[in-house]
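Students often ask why we bother predicting the structure of a whole assembly rather than each chain alone. The short answer is interfaces. A chain on its own may look different once its partners are present, and contacts between molecules only exist in the joint model. In this exercise we take two input lines together and write out one structure for the complete complex. Read the inputs first and try to guess which parts will touch.
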Amino acid sequence: MSFRIGATVLIDLNGNAVQSYGFKKKRILGNVQKVLKFLDAYEVDEIHAIVPLKGEGDDKSSDIFSRLSEIPISTPLGIGGGITERNIGEITKDPFFERCIFNSAIFNNPELLQKAKSIMGHQSMVASVPFIVDDGLKIYHSKTNSFKTMKDELWKEIESNFNEVLLLDASAEGDKKEFNFEVFEYIKFPIDRVLISGGLTKFDINKAKKMGLAGVSIDNFALHSEYSIRALR
Amino acid sequence: MVNIIDVGLGNIRSIEHWLGRSNLLYKRVSDVSSITNDVIIIPGVASAGEYMRRLKERNLDKEIIVRSGQGQKIIGICLGFQILTEYSEEDGGTECLGILKGFTKYIDGYKTHNGWSAFDFDSRKLSKNLHFKKQRKKIVSGRVYFNHELEVELEGAHAAKLDNGITSFFIQDNIFGFQFHPEKSQNTGQELLELII
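Now the answer. The structure tokens for the assembled complex follow.
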């Protein structure tokens, strides 16, 4: 299967695409409609549109998703951030996307994951795993806005519930600091179903390709055309 | 007026955007009485068990089978293609529409098939198919997007296969099945649409 060059778009609650740096600072990039249309025209392989709620409550993204549904793009789209039992029926009633991206539900909400799988199919399920490597692997839990130690049992749950994993190097996000490949010492998930994001350099992208990863998801560097998608494929 | 099957599942909005970009008229159909005699699209992005349950609940399963037998053009995309077969292994085993002789099984080793593959299509090879649109442009060449864990195995039928053995698409008379997502295959998908509808 071809190596995929995707793009991550973070969306704030005002409907703006934002760039996040190291999981802390944010900068507005512009209207999300324009950003998605640009990425569509640029023919990235897929788009991951995520509302990063970071403990801000989880129902606020429904309106954002509703607005996204009106944007007529022809690029595969995954959405995530604030998909809950309360709004999943509404969000999946009229889907304009192919993939559902989850973070908090990975930790403690198998019912929601089961429901999403039964509606959308297992092939649509993507686990978003922002991480830091600090005395072992710690992964981000958006509902509590904190990093937690990754337990081996959780990998079994992830493998059972998810088609792919999107690993985000939180400390390198928004910068070209180099992706921390040390994370693969801790990963217990088939690497041909792993996408990586955060801090990616061209060297990292080539390394990911050689390792046999599913692909990468690059952030605003795609928007600034700093990477030629075709050249990287 | 293209009929898009709407049982509250599948990426219907993406299909609408795809048709809209080519200025095709469409409507969602949720019950038997609202289906017209034009093309019927069965979208993808759902699981077979739940999708078939909802089709049966609305008697749309029988209606699609009858209309396909009468020669109405049916386009199945991804899951929509898989449920045209007799049976799917998904959701512990699901009886499907049986319009195509064959079945749908998990890709060997429960692998997944996600991403883009090359696509070359020459409509002159189907010049005898009266359900195929005749137009000046005959060849579509580019790449198409796949996202699936199950694959279609057809009995005795010649289907287009990828290098990895996965059935990419199948066209016979009025039945068009695509394992990939033409609605999310950028320019290639759009060019294909203009050949098939």
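Check your guess against this: The longest helix of chain A spans residues 110-120.
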